[in-house]
Design a protein that fits this description.
With 64 residues, the protein is mainly alpha-helical. The protein is 66% helix and 6% strand. The protein has 4 helices and 2 strands. The mean pLDDT is 87.
Length: 64
C-alpha cells in the first residue's frame, strides 16, 4: 500500500486505477468513511481488470 499525503493508505492497484481514470481528486473529496469503504472493497479485488472496472463504475456514475 502507498500512503498518500492526505493520510489514506491505498492499495497500489487502486491508486494506479484512480490515477488512470483521473479520479484521485474525486476520491479525496469524499468523506473519510466512504474512502475507507472504497479501499476495503478494492482490497478484495483479484485482478487489474476488476480494479479498473470498479474505479470506472464510480467514475462513470460521477461524471456522466
Amino acid at each position: 500500500m502507498e500512503k498518500y499525503s492526505r493520510g489514506v493508505e491505498l492499495p497500489v492497484g487502486f491508486g494506479l486505477a484512480l490515477e488512470e481514470y483521473q479520479a484521485m481528486d474525486y476520491f479525496f473529496s469524499l468523506p473519510k468513511k466512504e474512502q475507507q469503504h472504497m479501499v476495503d472493497h478494492a482490497e478484495t479485488l483479484q485482478s487489474k481488470l476488476e480494479m479498473q472496472a470498479y474505479v470506472n463504475s464510480f467514475v462513470e456514475s460521477k461524471f456522466h
